[in-house]
Design goal:
binds adenosine monophosphate; alpha+beta; 27% helix; 3 helices
C-alpha cells in the first residue's frame, strides 16, 4: 500500500473534486489551480511516474486527458490546453504517483508561464542523437 496523497484520494481517505472516474482512471481538480479548471489525471494503480507506467495504463490516462482538454475548451472558454507530466524531483515532480496535468489556457488572467529557452551551450547534436536513438 502506498501513502502518497493521490493513493489516499483514490482510497477515499482525502476529499477531492472529481471530474471523471472509472475502474482504472481518476481525474480531479488540482488543489492549487494554476489556471481555472486545472485538472490532474492519474491511474488508480500506483506507478511512480510516466517513465514506469505500462503503456496500456498510459493510454487510458491520455484518452481521458484528451477528453478533459476538449471539455475545458468547450465549457470553460479556454483558448488552448497544455498537458504536462513531471517525472522525478529534478523535473518538478512533488507527488510520486503518475499524473498528467491538463492546464486550460486563457487569453487574460493566465499566470501560467512555460518558457522553453534555447540552451546556449554548443551541443554536439549527432553525438546526442546517437546516444539516445531507440
Ligand atoms: P507535481 O508537482 O507535478 O508532482 O504535481 C502535483 C500536484 O498535486 C500539484 O500541482 C499539487 O497542487 C497537487 N496536489 C497536491 N495535493 C493535492 C490534493 N490533496 N488534491 C488535489 N491536488 C493536489
Amino acid at each position: 500500500m502506498h501513502n502518497d496523497v493521490f493513493c489516499k484520494i483514490i482510497r477515499g481517505e482525502i476529499p477531492s473534486y472529481k471530474i471523471y472516474e472509472d475502474a482504472d482512471v481518476l481525474a480531479i481538480l488540482d488543489i492549487s489551480q494554476v489556471t481555472k479548471g486545472h485538472v490532474l489525471v492519474m491511474p488508480k494503480e500506483h506507478y511512480e511516474n510516466f517513465l514506469s507506467t505500462p503503456q496500456e495504463v498510459m493510454h487510458k490516462v491520455m484518452n481521458i486527458a484528451q477528453r478533459i482538454g476538449q471539455v475545458q475548451i468547450k465549457m470553460l472558454g479556454a483558448k488552448g490546453v497544455n498537458i504536462l507530466s513531471n517525472a522525478y524531483e529534478a523535473a518538478g515532480q512533488t507527488v510520486m504517483h503518475f499524473h498528467v496535468h491538463v492546464i486550460p489556457r486563457y487569453e487574460s488572467n493566465d499566470n501560467f508561464h512555460l518558457e522553453m529557452k534555447e540552451n546556449n551551450e554548443s551541443l554536439n547534436l549527432p553525438a546526442i542523437a546517437d546516444k539516445i536513438k531507440l
